[in-house]
Amino acid sequence: MIESVLKQTALNGNLSSVSILNPKGHSRKKEVHADLLLTALIDAFSILVIFLLMSFSSTGDILSIGKDTELPKAMLTDMLERNTLVKIEEGQIFVEDQAVTVNELVEKLVAVRKSLASSVTEDAGAALTIQADRRVQYEFLSQIVQAASHAGFGDIHFAVLVK
Q1: The domain that contains 141 carries what CATH number?
Q2: Which of 34, 79, 24 shows the shortest CA–CA distance to 57?
Q3: How far is CA 120 from the centre of its chain?
Q4: For 52-92, what is each residue's pLDDT tens digit?
Q5: Among candidates 75, 74, 105, which has minimal Cα distance to 88?
Q6: Domain interval for residue 27
Q7: One domain, residues 80 and 157
Q8: pTM of the complete model
Q9: Domain check: are 84 and 42 in the same one?
């Protein structure tokens, strides 16, 4: 009789509802609901990732404009491409973010031109973009254009804003 009570308690007791696959004895309906919630969450994140990938440029920034720099405005413009950048900020000249003096400018541009000629085709390396504040004097810009011309840059662009 004691054996039958033990068997009956074991079959109908709390331990019978616990299994290896479902240790807490919860029903499967809650898991189906959680799967549906997880699927919607995955869909939302996939849409977010696709949006972010499409909205960010893979080429990166072409220009980084300083806080006090105001680019000149122009009516006729073209889209800028990534090429050698000469930046003028606060009276200083930067060639590819390296400060140079007016006397060193031709030497630096020739060195940049040689390194571009060895890595890309001749036409792609011949372009130069000058980024300067609209208040920079013409004489100063003229020196930079002449130095670029002496260094072999035939295609010189100015960074401007569209009017």
Answers
A1: 3.40.50
A2: 79
A3: 23
A4: 887 776 555 566 677 777 788 888 888 777 788 898 888 88
A5: 105
A6: 2-55
A7: yes
A8: 0.58
A9: no
